[in-house]
Design a protein that fits this description.
There is one protein chain. This protein is of the alpha/beta class. Helix content is 48%, strand content 16%. The protein contains 17 helices and 19 strands. The strands form five sheets. Strands 2-1-3-4-5 form a five-stranded parallel beta sheet, with helices on both faces. Strands 14-16-17-19-18 form a five-stranded mixed beta sheet. The protein has a four-stranded parallel beta sheet with strand order 7-6-8-9, covered by helices on one side. A hairpin with a 5-residue loop joins β18 and β19.
């Protein structure tokens, strides 16, 4: 039996809701952030702590899980832990109330002691991974579960083995130490190393009760079969205190043999190397455990790394100073401070230079291609210009010939139409004197009305054709006229133009204002025609409802001189601004006489003078005609 359609829809709906609940469930950790707390015993800026932090972050940032990282520095080197722990417990309880961490990473013994004693109250059930723990024993965890990590122990035997491999002739090891509490702890480590069976064939000396001067003197007298191992030397026998940087510099500069040590921050300051505790490696191993916990691993499956991960580090500068053969260097050792090869040292500059050279090569090739194209285009342009000039000259010649030759029959048409008018009048007079019965009825109306009307049309058309032909001849002569290019004083030229049209200016009642005009290069006759036409046009289309004003001004614009003829006339509609430069186009045929060629001739002349002409205007708001010509500067 087929299921009921309504039941099918109900089943599908329930399935979709179930999927939504599953994927929206808090248990779907792929959508959640993981919260991580980094807790450091000491303060930010301490070389060791900063190194551990770098190692932790280097690993955590590679995690596929989205992390929310919180960082706390307990600053327990500068503040006594008993009082500090109580204060920090109160602070963290308030600060992280309602926040549950997925894992805690901590560095050094004070942070571990704090979490072991107070973590159950602050961070119940949160897995903990430690690093940088000195003198580790399981008792430090006080039986608490959910804690694992990486210990920090100096590797004396590993350092001695490295020294023997680098200098096979070594027979004695001198250990430098002080008698501070840290120094006394180091004495026990010295005794353990000296009593180890692998070291019984070598001599051991402990220098821990010397002044700095005595220490330097002894170091200078060491024989080549000796190596120095440095613990700490913060205080000498005279009670003088030294920072790490100070005693490293003094010892490194005085020793005639290589100095080895056990901490990464010693290398680079006169210590050749050793199997060294490396803060970055401690932080990295700690974070690797934390990542595995975040990925679902149980803390119980991650045993404490009791063997401190101390990599072998060497200073290349001291390897070369003491003439240590490269074949004696262990393959797993990390050699620091190696001189960079020229390629490696300047690799960024070299890469940038190569990129620049490639880009320049591409640019050069592109420019060459473009130059070839431009030369081809230039040749084509010259060919086309030559062709067009020839055709233009041919066309101008045709226009000239046609206009000239058409005038002869036009004169005949005009002349014979006049003769015909006289003949018509003679007939009318003859008929008027004849008896009425002898006058045909159809002749009188034709002679009186039809023939005169036809003659008026013929003569009007002939006059219009004569005007058009005159314009064409005028235009063709403009294109064929030879040019004399020279620097022109435009103030003097405009003065001549205005003198020639002084009568029209006064008759039109125009207030003409001419400013100081910059010089230009051009043909004086043709430029005179330009401004004569522009001023004539301005006077034709003045607004009768306001005083007439025409202003002529000029300015320099780069390599051009730009002149403006502005009026307050009737203006030009936007759709007419280009048309007025076309052949036989007049803005208002009812205003005065003319062929409609003035602005066409202006544009033709300006073009021949390598210039430009344009108009700006608003309908009813006056016009501004601009002429740009080569500058005369």
């Amino acid at each position: 039996m087929l299921p009921n359609p309504g039941s099918c829809r109900l089943i599908v709906f329930c399935a979709m809701m179930a999927c939504a609940v599953v994927f929206a469930s808090p248990g779907n950790t792929t959508m959640d952030k993981k919260r991580v707390l980094l807790l450091h015993s000491y303060h930010q800026g301490l070389t060791w702590t900063d190194s551990v932090m770098q190692g932790m972050l280097a690993v955590l940032k590679q995690s596929d899980v989205k992390l929310e990282i919180h960082v706390e520095y307990m600053d327990s080197k500068r503040h006594p832990p008993p009082a500090l722990f109580a204060y920090l417990q109160s602070l963290y309880r308030r600060k992280y109330h309602g926040i549950r961490f997925d894992v805690i990473l901590l560095s050094d013994n004070n942070a571990l002691a704090f979490v072991v004693k107070r973590g159950a109250d602050l961070f119940p059930g949160v897995p903990v991974v430690f690093c940088g723990i000195n003198n580790y024993t399981p008792d430090l965890l006080a039986g608490r579960a959910g804690i694992t990590g990486v210990t920090e122990e100096i590797d004396i035997n590993g350092t001695l083995a490295l020294a023997r491999q680098l200098r096979p002739k070594i027979r004695k090891f001198v250990f430098i130490n002080d008698r501070t509490p840290t120094g006394r702890a180091n004495q026990e480590k010295f005794k353990q190393a000296r009593s180890d069976p692998v070291n019984r064939a070598f001599g051991f000396e402990l220098w821990d009760d010397l002044t700095i001067a005595e220490l330097q003197q002894r170091l200078r007298g060491l024989t080549p079969d000796t190596a120095v191992c440095l613990f700490t030397f913060h205080r000498d026998r005279a009670g003088q205190w030294f920072s790490i940087a100070e005693y490293l510099t003094l010892i490194g500069a005085s020793s005639s043999v290589p100095v080895f040590s056990f901490w990464h921050n010693y290398i680079g300051h006169g210590v050749l190397g050793g199997a060294m505790i490396y803060g970055r490696e401690q932080g990295r191993r700690c974070a690797e455990y934390a990542r595995r916990i975040l990925d679902g691993a149980a803390v119980a499956s991650l045993p404490v790394l009791v063997a401190s991960p101390n990599p072998m580090l060497l200073d290349d500068r001291l390897l070369r100073r003491f003439g240590i053969a490269r074949r004696n260097i262990p393959s797993e050792a990390l050699v620091l401070f190696q001189p960079e090869s020229v390629v490696r040292k300047y690799q960024h500059i070299i890469i940038a230079s190569v990129v620049v050279v490639i880009l320049l090569a591409v640019l050069v090739v592109t420019l060459l291609v473009n130059i070839v194209k431009l030369k081809h285009n230039e040749r084509e342009r010259i060919r086309l210009n030559t062709f067009l000039e020839a055709k233009n000259a041919e066309l101008e010649q045709m226009v000239y010939v046609a206009s000239h030759d058409l005038r002869s029959p036009l004169v005949n048409i005009d002349g014979y139409s006049k003769e015909l008018a006289i003949a018509t009048q003679t007939l009318q007079e003859a008929l008027a004197g004849a008896p009425a019965e002898k006058q045909p009825a159809i002749v009188a109306p034709v002679l009186a009305r039809d023939i005169p009307e036809a003659l008026r049309f013929i003569r009007t058309s002939a006059t219009k054709m004569d005007t058009l032909l005159s314009g064409l001849l005028h235009l063709s002569r403009t294109g064929r006229a030879s040019l004399v290019i020279e620097s022109l004083d435009m103030n003097r030229l405009l003065a001549k133009v205005t003198d020639s049209i002084e009568y029209q200016i006064k008759a039109a009642g125009v207030a003409l204002q001419v400013g100081d005009l910059p010089p230009c290069r051009g043909d004086a006759v043709q430029i005179n025609r330009i401004f004569s036409n522009l001023l004539d046009n301005a006077m034709k289309y003045l607004d009768p409802d306001r005083p007439c004003t025409i202003r002529v001004s000029g300015r320099f614009d780069g390599h051009r001189s730009v002149y403006c003829v502005a009026d307050n006339g009737i203006g030009i509609a936007p759709d007419q601004r280009e048309k007025i430069f076309e052949l036989f186009q007049r803005l208002d045929p009812a205003r005065g006489s003319g062929e409609g060629l003035g602005l066409t001739i202006v544009r033709r002349i300006v073009s021949r003078l390598q210039g430009a002409v344009w108009v700006e205007s608003e309908d009813g708001g006056g016009s501004r005609f601009y002429v740009a010509l080569p500058s005369g500067r």
